[in-house]
């Protein structure tokens, strides 16, 4: 059910408005019967003549009510299903665009951070890359150092040089 109030108006008028005009009555007298007017063009008097001009105004107010019942329920259900599908499609497109934006932001911010480029912490744009964190990719060990203490084993002599004796190579 659909109820619609309405108010319409029309106007029909002409300016300047004149109810009547003065129509002249000419002297048509031929007193000597010679067929020629005695006073041609002479006006005897004026007769008020109605112009028939009117002004019309109309103002209409009311309610319009319509009631409709779908004759094909199946077509209506398909229409609702198509609308829901279209809405879901638009939402997915929006989500895809948002994901593309976030990945591009992540990539650009990461490359800039690697290069040592960033916004000043007091800049209003500092927040653009504030949530991007650089980490080492899998299989890459970060630069690091170890403290190695060397404890050489004590050297123990197992004899003296005299114990070796004299050796000769090739001469007897």
Structure write-up:
- The chain is α+β, with helices and mostly antiparallel strands.
- It folds into 2 domains: 68 residues, no CATH class; 70 residues.
- 24% of the residues lie in helices and 22% in strands.
- The mean pLDDT is 90.
Tell me the number of helical segments per DSSP (H or I, 4 or more residues long).
1
State the domain count. 2
Distance between the termini: 133 Å
Provide the spatial order of strands within the biggest beta sheet. 1-4
Biggest sheet statistics? 2 strands, antiparallel
Element layout with pairings:
Blueprint: E1 2-12, E2 20-26, E3 43-50, E4 56-66, H1 73-114
Antiparallel strand pairs: 1-4, 2-3
Characteristic key phrases:
single chain, 172 residues, alpha+beta, 2 domains, two-stranded antiparallel sheet, 24% helix, rod-shaped
Could you give a quick summary of the protein structure above?
It contains 1 helix and 4 strands.
């Amino acid at each position: 059910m659909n109820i619609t109030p309405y108010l319409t108006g029309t106007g029909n008028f002409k300016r300047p408005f004149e109810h009547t005009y003065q129509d002249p009555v000419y002297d048509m007298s031929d007193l000597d019967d010679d067929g020629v007017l005695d006073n041609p063009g002479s006006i005897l008097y004026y007769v008020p003549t109605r112009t028939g001009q009117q002004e019309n105004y109309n103002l209409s107010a009311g309610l319009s009510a319509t009631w409709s019942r779908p004759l094909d329920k199946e077509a209506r259900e398909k229409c609702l299903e198509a609308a829901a599908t279209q809405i879901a499609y638009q939402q997915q497109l929006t989500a895809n665009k948002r994901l593309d934006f976030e990945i591009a932001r992540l990539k650009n911010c990461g490359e800039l951070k690697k290069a040592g480029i960033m916004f000043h912490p007091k800049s209003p744009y500092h927040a653009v890359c504030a949530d991007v964190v650089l980490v080492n990719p899998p299989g890459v060990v970060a630069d690091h150092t170890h403290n190695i203490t060397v404890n050489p084993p004590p050297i123990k002599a197992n004899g003296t040089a005299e114990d070796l004796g004299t050796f000769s190579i090739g001469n007897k």
